[in-house]
## 1
Amino acid sequence: MTDEDEYDNVVRTNRWRMVAVMALLAGGAGALADRPLMILMAAEGVGFIAYPNLTGAPKVDLEVEREVSDKGPGHGTEVDVDVTIKNTGGVLADVRYVDGVPPTLSVERGTPRHATTLRPGGSASFSYSVVAKRGRHSFVPSTVLARNLSGSVEVETTAYCDTVIDCASDFDDIELRKQASQYTGRVLTDQGGSGVEFHGTREYQSGDSISRIDWKRRARTGEFITLKFREERSAKVMLVLDARKEAYVSQGEDEPSAVAYDIYAAEQLFLSLEASRDSVGFAVIGREFTWLQPGAGDEHRARARRLLTTHPSLAPAPPSRDTFSEEQIDQLKKRLDSSTQIILLSPLADDYIVDTARRLDAHGNNVSVISPDLTLDDTPGRRLAKVEREARLSDLYQSEIPVVDWEVDKPLAKVLAHTTEKWTA
Amino acid sequence: MSTRSTTQVIRRPTTFSGVLTVIVATAGAAALFLETQEMALGLAGAGAGFLVLYLGLALRYRTLVGWVIAVGGLAAAAAGTAYSIGFATLELEVISLSLAFTGMLLATFAVAPLYGQGSRRLTMLAAFMIFGAGLVASDFVEPPQILAAAVAAALVWDFAENATGLGQQMGRQAGTKRAEFTHSFASTLVGVASASGGYAAYSMGRGLDWALEAVILMLVSIMLLVLFLYR
């Protein structure tokens, strides 16, 4: 069964073992009581014992098409999502599909789940609706579970279809851009030159732009004086996503993990930073160290998008084995140059990540943290986790590392705006 | 903090396989008592009662009527079984009928749970009860009847486990009927085929006057062969 090697997650369900037990029981009882009919009951079990072994692991080849009724809806509008899954491989006796609803949107009507049988080339459609919220919401990879006819083997894999619901009212758009650039984007330097903010004056030197000559002063005194403005340089920003096993915290079984919120935030930040001409890169720590050099342009945007949506290091389900090691942080440090600042996206679910943020900051790269808050306070255990997280936040504040504590019910743009007001106040 | 989804996933066993479970449990039990028509009818009535109980349990979240229907269904199922027992002449028949009734009851509660997501343990017990009813009845029935009960027991397990698994993974609101139909159809075919094969081997064995020990030995070897061949 070579097919099984292709998937990360192949489970033998062993669901037919029960029938084998019944058959052996009947065989034993029949032998003891000398009853041929009991033996006959055992004979019937042979078919059911052979059945699960006759078919191997299913080979999943699915194409997903997704249509949304409105790609740019207003806040609070219901958007219909129509999904069609098409089988481009062999027969799939039992395929169970969970659509990759953006973690920040909620399902209003219907269900994003569907189970069906697909013949080769066959397709199945279903629909549901979500309520749009402000912001840009990308669909995440869908989870696919496929079983063979007897249900003895189950493989888990993902399918992806690039769909975005972009719900940006003018108000939010402006606010996000302004706020994001304020805390990471354009960096005002202390060097005088061309720019917007006044820095100082000096005597005119030939070659200076005519527009920078202080003409009023020339009219008053006859002197040629050149105005100097603070030079603005674009920032180089590295978005570091915490996708270690510890970061896969969520508010419940069906709820998206903190990593899903990190990915959402990273995409929003990437778009707004890129719009203000900063060069933005990505690093992921967790399953494996993943790095995308800061850059700009269409190709870079496409690469960033691929990384955030389909890279296995950012898979929606937590890793089965913990493969994170300190080496990944060393690699990150090695690759960062001195002019790059870091935005760390993490739920702050353990002390290690706080320590890492401090070390990176001390290494010379300014660190800011955006942390989705997924803690609850309904049980003592969860209350403790909440208190611990709050302690970590205050640790970071004390180390003068700015932190955005993002209550995920609120739009990220609003939270960023509010937090930056606090910082500047 | 509020929960994210407005529509929660209800992880209860799926309806299609759930109803099939109750039907196949009834068929397995009734098959054992086909000789006495009244007993088979009584059990069929009990099965109908269990279907009503299933319906009532499915509706109980909406109205009080759901509970009334459930209690009515349970009463009908008990009455049907009591009617069957009334026609029993052997002590073993009474034991077998009681086991069949318990199996049907447990199967219904396994696929229409009072609380939680459905229970595999309850499903297992239900399948064992139906199988046990067959074992006990092996003293007074014909080979095809015993085979029907054995296949029914295996299918009760298969259908109910599938209903529970699908319900847990997909939720009750998801469209799952096509997958359920394919799965249950294939399992039924396998059941019919292995029962036919078993019956053919049994008839041949009787004709050739094989020793029981030899049949057992052969059977165990086939089982082990099948188990190890595909590992």
## 2
Amino acid sequence: MAGLAAAFGSGAMTNSIPELEEADCILVTGSNTTEAHPLVATRILRAVEKGARLIVVDPRDIQIARFATLHLRQRPGSDVAWLNGMMNVIINEGLEDKEFIAGRTEGFEELKAAVAEYTPERVETITGIPADELRQTARIYAGAESAAIVYAMGITQHTTGVDNVLSCANLAMLTGNVGRPSTGVNPLRGQNNVQGACDMGALPNVYPGYQSVASPEIRQKFERAWGSTSDLKAGLTVTEMIDAAGDGRLRALYVMAENPMLSDPDINHARECLKQIDFLVVQDVFLSETAELAHVVLPGVSFAEKDGTFTATDRRVQLVRKAIEPLGEARPDWEIICDLAKQLTDHASRITHHAPRGWDYSHPSEIMAEIAALTPIYGGISYERLEAGEALQWPVPSPDHPGTPYLHKGQFSRGKGRFHAVSFKEPAELPDEEFPLMLTTGRIMFHFHTGTMTRRSEKLEQEVSEAYVEISAQDANALGIGKSERVRIVSRRGEIEARAWVTRRVPPGVVFIPFHFAEAAANALTHAALDPVAKIPEYKVCAIRVERIA
Amino acid sequence: MDYRNVLTTCIYCGAGCSLYLQVLDGKVVGVLPAKQHPISEGRLCIKGWNAHAFIHHEDRLTRPLIRDNGAFREASWDEALTLIADRLREVRATHGPDAIGFLTSAKCTNEENYLLQKFARVVIGTNNVDHCARL
């Protein structure tokens, strides 16, 4: 999101899911759309039926690639190179949108200079993508009336994640594919309310609505509303908090319905760090791997037991409705937080200087009213409008504003769109003699994230009940591994066992493991190297070896 | 017999499909797709069709737990919240607000995410608040 914010001024999906159906060209990269976002894939496949050209750039032979005009299989971690290569072709062949570049962007000359050396032939040596296929791809994308880029974590979960996103933004601006329907740069969020959690300021550097904590004016606004607030210095990210727990800077951690013990990179390291902490509170519906380490565990409720809103990947704010009473003594998370806040602030030895206002809400709709008052992009959102069935995509600046299906019409959020000159960098850990294969991780159709919910869903668990490793026939033969044989996968950080799936889905030299399975956790192997700006770990590339179990 | 269909939003991926939870006598027994919704258009993926399946699972936590001598014991809300308040107050007094961190959740509602970051910033006074967007 940092990448899109730098280029456009807003770090969210630029367009809407239904618009994809009307695009003339869709470039899908780093998204296993049919498995991870099936109903987004439906729109893409409908566009294909209507004649759109689909280009898939992904190392794996995923299902959606079968519907593609071209499927480019890049070496994992080489995305900046092929994206620069496409722009090299577009500029050399004069296919760029000169009017859009002149009127709506800045930094074009720097971009042009940066991509000049990424000729298709040179890109082929870096990425393994045949030069002619890259040329064709560039011509198809640049020639389309409306072309949309769709990506997911295959683009962001790299040490060069921000560079990858900036390159996607460069490509879209170069061809004038921003600010119109069925175009844009469209990150698909993996979890139902990641977008909302970001929007709500659940980030160390921004208040709700991406208002910077470093701005004295913004700080004053929240101080006035809340009675007091934190200082101007950004806080720690998840991965930094884990490290800070390990070296004693962080003494207490409060975790609401997250499971970093399975979702963080290099979980053996994460466990050692979390064990150091003086006080760990986990609020969740199940005793997750993280909750098992806690000092206090509070029972939260499922989405069926509370009212609220979620914000979908295309900025669509939608109602969650209470269907049943909370089970046992479990309580909605919002009620728990309010009670705890009151305990801490009503106490005689009050720990803040001012008495913070507002921990008495009778219903989440009152919390939304407060959010709307302080968050310009949510300014016009209310339960009344949502109950009336309005489809509201932010920004919704006022109660009479209809919402914004696509961003950057006429002008970018930051004014002019900014090109960024980006050069290719190798992933942090490459295969070597000891660890000769590349591991990439991801999701499968039947499970979700750390599996806390889906693995307790009978039918989903029946479909896929154990971890597996996708490995090419060439690598399997070389190692003497038979079909469905259990193997050991070893990295510098840990080892797991899983069943081998010998398949053409992965190219030689690359293996894939889904990360949903606690008993064979892919994140015991992954590398905690971070993107320097977004602090996203490099889940998509690390070096491993696969061994037979004697 | 009390049967209702409750229109809500799926908890799995970020597409934001609408679905109905089928509620029979206070128990969620199934899922139905929602025809009028712009994303789901009357369809769901296999995770969506099973979005109810974990709700009544026997592993659900139903009481607060406190670790005592290495093992968890059940506790009252009063005891658990008082303990948390005391310990947070103690850590803050000894090590400062930035010695405390908060992880909010992509699984929780907007309102809950808003409140937990407000709690971190107002009650504790730290910007150490994040969630798993990057993971």
